[in-house]
Amino acid sequence: MSVFRRIRDITVATLNEKLEQSQDPVRLIDQFLHSTRQDIVEAEKLQQQCQVHSRQLKQQVDQAENMRDKREEQALLALKAGEDHLAKLALQEKLIYEEKIEQYQGLLTSSLESLKEIEEQLGELRMEYQTVYSKRQYYVARVETLRLQQKMNERTGSYGGGPDVPKMFNRLEDRISDWELEARSLRDLRRMGQEYMDQAGESVSTVLEKELARLKQKLNNNSGKE
């Protein structure tokens, strides 16, 4: 892992730790996004430089390979012509180009590895930027929700009649229920009184009938004795 990559990981970890503790998370995220955007721009420039350098190294390798092959063909032609001295000169240059190929090929391999690494880092930076930007949208929505809730609380506190309206209707409902209960109780009491009077009347009538029958029986008994 490169030093650049390790620093970025620490930065993201620090951001995650500070977000929930921050009084202004959106501002903290914006600072991180600004820093990350600068890193992306620098990484893109480095990527372009690595690409240009790799192409230049590749050209050097290709040119050296062409010259190596060309000198080998010249050495063959010189041998066929019996010019051993010219053949040796051509082979010496061929060896020089082979050494150049080996040197530039090593540089090209290293440059391509660096290019691959910076491309991976650039991809991770862009992914981090998108991830944190999405988190920024979440915190913006969260802060806006909190702001609206605070405004609603302020409005509820300043509007005196609002909170008491439900209580007022609850008290009215309780009062009406009490009236209804009293009315039902009086109605039941009257009905019970009427039933009692009816029962009492029936009882008195029965007693009177019994007394009347007793007196009639007494009269009949007295008449029989005379």
If you had to describe this structure to a student in words, what would you say it looks like?
The chain has 226 residues and is mostly helical. It folds into two domains: 4-161, Helix Hairpins (Orthogonal Bundle), CATH 1.10.287; 172-225, no CATH class. The chain contains four helices and no strands. The chain has helices spanning 3-19, 25-80, 84-158, 161-225. Helix 2 (25-80) packs antiparallel against helix 3. The longest helix has 75 residues, at 84-158. The radius of gyration is 55 Å and the shape is rod-shaped. The protein starts with a helix and ends with a helix.
N-to-C series of helices and strands:
HHHH
Largest sheet features: none
- Structural class by secondary-structure content: mainly alpha
Mean pLDDT across residues: 79
Number of separate structural domains: 2
Described by the principal axes of the CA atoms, the overall outline is rod-shaped
Strand content: under 5%
Radius of gyration: 55 Å
The CATH top-level class label of the largest domain: Mainly Alpha
**What count of helical segments does DSSP give?**
4
Number of strands: 0
- Whole-Å distance between the termini? 145 Å
What are the segments in which pLDDT stays under 50 over at least 5 consecutive residues? none
* CATH architecture assignment of the largest domain: Orthogonal Bundle
CATH topology of the largest domain: Helix Hairpins
In helices, the fraction of residues equals: over 70%
Protein name: Phage-shock protein
Keywords: Coiled coil
Coiled coil: 43-74, 101-135
Pfam family, one: PspA_IM30
